[in-house]
């Protein structure tokens, strides 16, 4: 089999020697952290208030109808993730990042002035496309810059920025909704997020694809597998990648349930809109902050144990929320859910970087993120249908059980991957 790579993937000459690592690239890395914070804030502005808008303004009753916006978001984001990775390999990262921000421009205006629920669904389809392009690309660009030694740390910082911003934006939109009404005031923030993210991406972010080529090595480039082969490896053929993909799907399955059902659970318990906003912020904020530590921890102790334990901690947090009736217990469950998710989220991305050749890493990340973000749609559909049929508590317990089983799959099927990148480099030499 020929070892040649397509021309657009061959290492390119650059004006100066490229250095991998966070210290060598800290300015560009910090800029991408800031950009990803604006990406996360675009999702956060919805989390505390869209279920309330569905019930109070559009008079939706069925849980499956209310959660339809998450289904639309999840499907559009998942499909966009799939092509974003491949396009990033083919056309470069920066162009895909800018295209994602352009897709986000209409979203806050559609949410402000939507005359029907279908407009909300359309806005979330655009938001999903934007998130698939922007978040996927910032992940890939940080992996490019960090190199193998700091991959977990880089992913922890990236996901911290995104999900801490989700929590902060949820808290801000909940406060604005309580003070000024559900619409349009909370979505003014979205206009600022889009403008800042787009301007920074166009004017300051630099292309990072050459860093991936540099890591792959000019001396012995690997043949690029077909997209079908990459899809098969990531989905079922490779036990490490397929274990990672199912864990990512289930992780976002429970997040889709939390996004749609938790505000309704909190409201049914008699909590006020500001309290619901605080609870909606706790989970992603804890998730975000803890990733500063869990990503780096995975570089030291390995990936597999953190993933397994994280899925089981998430299951415990979900179960506690199912049992709770008071704010303090809801908050405790949200903290556990955030901690467990932080143990899993950056570690899954770092594990992919461990086992995949840099030449097709972006494509593999795209397939993984396809399955991971389909979890939003699966979680919203499953929990909505079960809630309508058997009640909200049963839906929450079903998701908790699936989360526990997902951790068990990783424990049985996945190997430790932390040293795979070093082994691959040694074999190439």
From TrEMBL:
SUPFAM superfamilies: MFS general substrate transporter
Domain Major facilitator superfamily (MFS) profile span(s) in chain numbering: 29-418
Keyword Transport attributed: yes
Protein localization: Cell membrane
Top-level taxon of origin: Bacteria
Membrane topology: Multi-pass membrane protein
Matches recorded under CDD domains: MFS_MdtG_SLC18_like (cd17325)
Name used for this protein in its record: MFS transporter
Transmembrane segment boundaries: 29-54, 60-83, 95-113, 119-140, 160-181, 187-205, 261-286, 306-327, 334-353, 390-412
Keywords per UniProt: Cell membrane, Membrane, Transmembrane, Transmembrane helix, Transport
